[in-house]
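Sequence, please.
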């Protein structure tokens, strides 16, 4: 398998540290608001990666849920997002975290995204930042002991000048960053360097009423956002991990700081591979609440689209390309999904009269799909291979009984990576089948009024009947 590694800026052969096993870490959501479709794309990409890896490896996947310490700006400015959410909704921060974590998990389930499976002590598998406070405090102790962190009045800061390779992920050195620094951002005057970042905030100054706080050897407070991922990785997977993922917006600050803390504290690389997915644009513009083009999954389902149509739309773009979301592109993805299901439903329409020549056809298609995914997860190419298979199969009319078995195997194989419910299709009802037979008899006896009437009746049930040289074939016209 080849993957594009942000750290080396090259497409590299992927090799896990332990043979046949992969450790994978994903930065999860900050649960102060609903996830938008840009966030969700990121998790669909992760899921595709995990499923593709699972073709060859056992994958241990950990994802966090940020329920404390993520300030409005990723660079430690402004208030805590959770506190802001609590004030907006007149709830406690714990209620806000609980509510949005639940909605997030529902979105993940609707999109067929596999649960994280690394051990985190929670039945749902997600690692909450607030469950790892002790581990974060232990990491700060190490950083202070090794001279990488220092205590100021407002916070304990990581000293970025102590690392010679700080910024290696983005390729931006401290000197480069300083040129682009904004001086209108208010920073703590006690910081030694503007890029020093907080690993622990004290409940003083504008954080004196912060609801979530814990005792520490240095005083009451709460951890900085970047620290949680490093501490969770250390205690669930251990360094180095094979693959760390996230959105491209994490490269410059969050992932750069994760690397700095972990490597300083433990003296080992944090991850061998760093994979980043691109943004979602809406109608070619950046998504924003003020432009009214800010969507979450519920906005999509309320308009009658299936969540898996959105999943398919995500898979139709390579993860390192921007995805332009439009209602037309979602409509097209939904039609593609209907076609995929019609193709899958061919397994229920096999005929012993057919010759059965198609098994090689599936085999070849499966090889093309797999090789597209093994080459830096080109899901859009894999899908176009599948579209070719569908067109070919369409031209072939009905399947032989043996072909139907082979088709089922093919569907199971591609389903394991695509996650579109292709392998769990159900046959139409026996009543609908009886109607199709009745219509065929009416046609044979040239009773076209009756055959048309039955066709209309079936159409109302969402079943279209097509007459092929091999006999009638049905397809569902609605998603089921
Ligand atoms: Zn993270």
């Amino acid at each position: 398998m080849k993957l594009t590694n942000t750290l080396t800026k090259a497409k590299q052969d992927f090799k896990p540290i332990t043979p046949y096993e992969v450790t994978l870490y994903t930065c999860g959501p900050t649960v102060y608001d609903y996830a938008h479709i840009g966030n969700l794309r990121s998790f669909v990409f992760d899921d595709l990666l995990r499923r593709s890896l699972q073709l060859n490896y056992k994958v241990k996947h950990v994802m966090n849920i940020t329920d404390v310490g993520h300030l409005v700006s990723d660079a430690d400015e402004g208030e805590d997002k959770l506190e802001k959410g609590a004030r907006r909704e007149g709830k406690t921060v714990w209620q806000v975290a609980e509510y949005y974590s639940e909605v997030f998990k529902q979105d993940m389930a609707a999109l067929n995204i596999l649960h994280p499976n690394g051990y985190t002590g929670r039945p749902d598998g997600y690692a909450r930042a607030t469950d790892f406070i002790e581990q974060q405090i232990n990491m700060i102790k190490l950083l202070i002991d090794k001279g990488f962190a220092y205590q100021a009045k407002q916070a304990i800061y990581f000293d970025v000048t102590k690392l010679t390779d700080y910024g290696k992920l983005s390729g931006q050195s401290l000197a480069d960053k300083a040129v682009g620094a904004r001086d209108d951002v208010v920073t703590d005057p006690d910081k030694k360097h503007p890029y020093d970042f907080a690993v622990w905030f004290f409940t003083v100054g504008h954080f004196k009423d912060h609801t979530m706080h814990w005792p520490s050897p240095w005083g009451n407070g709460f951890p900085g956002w970047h620290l949680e991922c490093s501490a969770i990785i250390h205690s669930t997977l251990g360094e180095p991990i094979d693959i760390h993922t996230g959105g491209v917006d994490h490269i410059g600050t969050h992932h750069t700081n994760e690397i700095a803390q972990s490597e300083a504290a433990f003296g080992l690389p944090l991850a061998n591979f760093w994979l980043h997915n691109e943004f979602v644009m809406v109608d070619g513009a950046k998504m924003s609440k003020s432009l009214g083009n800010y969507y979450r999954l519920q906005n999509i389902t309320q308009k009658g689209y299936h969540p898996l149509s959105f999943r398919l739309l995500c898979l139709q773009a390579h993860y390192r390309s921007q995805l332009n979301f439009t209602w037309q592109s979602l409509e097209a993805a939904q039609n593609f999904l209907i076609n995929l299901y019609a193709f899958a439903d061919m397994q229920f329409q096999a005929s012993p009269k057919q010759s059965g020549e198609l098994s090689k056809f599936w085999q070849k298609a499966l090889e093309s799909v797999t090789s597209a995914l093994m080459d830096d997860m080109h899901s859009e190419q894999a899908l176009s291979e599948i579209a070719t298979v569908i067109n070919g199969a369409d031209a072939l009319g009905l399947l032989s009984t043996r072909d139907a078995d082979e088709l089922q195997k093919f569907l199971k194989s591609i389903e394991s990576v695509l996650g579109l419910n292709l392998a769990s299709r159900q046959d139409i009802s026996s009543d609908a089948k009886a109607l199709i037979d009745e219509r065929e008899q009416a046609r044979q006896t040239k009773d076209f009024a009756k055959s048309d009437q039955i066709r209309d009746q079936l159409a109302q049930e969402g079943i279209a009947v097509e007459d092929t040289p091999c006999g009638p074939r049905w397809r569902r016209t609605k998603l089921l």
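Residues 27, 229, 254, 258 surround zinc ion (CB under 6 Å).
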